[in-house]
Amino acid sequence: MMVALDGTIVAIANPAIQKDLGASFADVQWITNGYFLALAVSLITAGKLGDRFGHRQTFLIGVTGFAAASGAIGLSSSIAAVVTFRVLQGLFGALLMPAALGLLRATFPAEKLNMAIGIWGMVIGASTAGGPILGGVLVEHVNWQSVFFINVPVGIIALILGLVILLDHRAENAPRSFDLLGIGLLSGAMFCLVWALIKAPAWGWGDGKTWAFLAAAVLGFALFAFWETKVKEPLIPLGLFRSVALSAGVVLMVLMAIAFMGGLFFVTFYLQNVHGMSPIDAGLHLLPLTGMMIVGSPLAGALITKLGPRIPLAGGMASVAIAMYGMSTLETDTGSAVMSIWFALLGLGLAPVMVGATEVIVGNAPMELSGVAGGLQQAAMQIGGSLGTAVLGGVMASKVDSDLAANWKGAGLPELTPSQLDQASEAVQVGVAPVAKGTPEAIAAKIADVAHDTFISGMSLASLVACGVAVVAVFVAFLTKRGANAEAGAGVGHI
Fold first, then answer.
1. What is the rounded distance in angstroms from the CA atom of residue 60 to the CA atom of residue 343?
2. How far apart are CA 327 and CA 69, in angstroms?
3. CA separation (Å) from 135 to 89, 148, 253, 302, 449?
4. Which pLDDT tens digit goes with each residue over 55-76?
5. For 240, which DSSP code?
6. Shortest CA distance to 298 belongs to which of 96, 133, 129, 124?
7. Most exposed of 106, 381, 423, 458 (fewest Cβ within 10 Å)?
8. Tens digit of pLDDT for each residue in 347-405?
9. With 70 as the cut, is the pLDDT of residue 495 above it?
């Protein structure tokens, strides 16, 4: 809950942090980017640590470190300290997330594993979608520091319960050595990939720096794959990917995250900047999405146990595709009831995918690699989220750039210089009307109409692209199957 919550809750606190600490816009971006970068780069290595030393120990260290880093952020008086501790948050979060999945896999027998993952998915989904609501309440009624301090009591409770309840499960043939070069190559490749995705909206997709980092990522992954065939105990045995079901599960997590994270990114701007809602109101309007994920995840677990993952996964992604198509039809004056239908359908579709794809990945991996499999699942989600935000953000920017000048002229507004048009375009991409101080009310209203209509056209196209990604994922879902090694869980010795 802490790790998923901190992925979205901080976005609401960023303006208050910027004002209080006198930070630049680039500094504030690093509050989010530093966290996601550290998390994405270290997830698979952290999973390997759990396989080697035991998931209980890794989980408890992760929880303790995450809570401590959160408290340190709340006590920070400079933006540099906030960013530094956010990076530490990401590293400790990477320790506890794959370990949590490894513990579930080792604790529950095959017939109960899907329900356990369903409850886990419910918490992840509710935390991700509920972050803006809780963040809005805390920032508005307490202060920005409370967004981080809230993790301290939660971490203490998790640590105490973990020490009392969790058993140390270790596979008999757990790895005994570390593939240090493999860790370095994979971490470098992941860094270059995620960094390119984070910076692409600012640099531009055609910029040489973007392509240089993407090329470095491809080279890093190629060298990593080559090295893994040579080392005695590889970080990720490439034989894992001989399982079509496991590979399909990883691809499915990436595609789901592209559609979900990319789509959700624009919805928050739509609610706050086009409809003029407060952060709390915007969060409340997303309750149908949160609610359906909370209700749907355990139900999905039961359904997958009964039918296997293929049909629920395909049905879930079909529901996401329909929801994203519906979101492409939203207008500036669309009512809450219509929005709620599409948000609820999105939550209903995400639930079986979050549960089913996780079970497919973790359940099709050998018990001794359950941590690495959990890291793969989480890394796929992080990369998909970054990819969705970057690619759909690029689609939005391109559409706004191509439409704004003509819409502006068509409304009879004064012509803009190229630099003014660029500034206006940046504002419109997040749904803000570029109204200068002192603008007459009638002109300001026209500018707002143009800005919102242009934003809607961009969001509509981005939503259609997300819909297309979800349709592809429906076909990928048919390549999945029940975890071939799931029965290995719960039979592992307690140490």
1. 35
2. 37
3. 17, 10, 26, 32, 30
4. 889 999 999 999 999 999 999 8
5. G
6. 124
7. 423
8. 888 888 888 887 788 777 777 777 788 888 888 887 887 788 778 877 888 888 888 88
9. no
User: How confident is residue 336, by pLDDT bands cut at 50, 70 and 90?
Assistant: confident
* Residues facing 494 on adjacent strands: 169
**What DSSP string runs through 351-417?**
HHHHHHHHHHHHHTS-GGGHHHHHHHHHHHHHHHHHHHHHHHHHHHHHHHHHHHHHHHHHTTPPPPP
* Residue 494, SS3 per DSSP: strand
Contact 130, 38 (CB under 8 A): no
Which ranges of 231-363 does DSSP label H, i.e. alpha helix?
244-269, 279-285, 287-307, 310-327, 336-363
**Contact predicate 395/469, CB 8 Å:** no
Whole-angstrom Cα distance, residue 122 to residue 127? 8
Selected residue with higher pLDDT from 18 and 313: 313
Q: Where are the alpha helices (DSSP H) in 142-238?
A: 145-149, 151-165, 180-203, 208-228
Q: Who's near 3: CB < 8 A, 6+ residues apart?
A: 39, 66, 93, 96, 97
- Largest Cα–Cα separation, the chain: 75
Place of tokens 């989010």: 32
CA–CA gap between residue 252 and residue 245 (Å, rounded): 10
Cα–Cα dist 143/20, whole Å: 10
Q: How far, in Å, CA of 155 to CA of 449, rounded?
A: 47
CA distance 492 to 107: 8
Euclidean distance between CA atoms 3 and 53, whole angstroms: 22
SS3 478: coil
Q: What is the Cα 387 distance to its own chain's centre?
A: 10
pLDDT of residue 90 exceeding 70, the answer is yes
114: nearest Cα among 291, 317, 357: 357
Distance CA 289, CA 320 (A): 11
Residue the block writes with tokens 């990477």? 94
Of 16, 47, 46, the C-alpha closest to 31 is 16
How long a stretch of residues is the chain?
A: 495
DSSP 431-452: T---PPTT--HHHHHHHHHHHH
Task: List the structure tokens of 419.
Answer: 């630099």
Tokens representing 97 are 């997330």
Determine the Cα angle at 41 with ends 488 and 397, to 5°.
120
